[in-house]
Protein: 54S ribosomal protein L31, mitochondrial
Organism: Aspergillus tanneri
Amino acid sequence: MSGESVPQSGRRGKESTGVREVAAVIGLSRWEFWPRRCTDHATSTGFSCSQNSTPIHRLSTPSICPSHPSAKMMFKPSSPLFSGLLWKIPWRISSPQKARQRKRLRAVDNVVDTVSAALQRNGVTAKAVDRWYREMPREQEMLPKDKYTIFDKKEKKYRKGIHKLPKWTRVSQRVNPPGF
């Protein structure tokens, strides 16, 4: 074997691409491979940089110093990357969403009417269907405020868009507290 070959790991027949092997291929010792604080560029954060003395700059890996030229490769803070998942829910519900909401309300009304008619044909009544007719308004009877917004005690005007409710397309939310 030549002196420049990558050393084998403890496993038989497989080469490892660990830190030691990469450092050996490049010609660095294992400890020269790790990032260090720099000493040339003094920054207000207390970090400094030495471009010429640290082998890490030859590897063009990000250094710890933010003023160093290789710092351009460092983490770029953006809302999703900096703080995790960012849900962008618009403040208003769009016109197509409103149309689909009205269509869903009418579809639920039709299903309840169909179930009620089938039960009446058989001479049976259901408490749930009777309660639905007593408590829930039909789509035509609802105000636009009730179709597209829901009560929320944490909001400034006690209303928020229905599209901010989790699973809002699967839940019937027709009744709000009186006066709100």
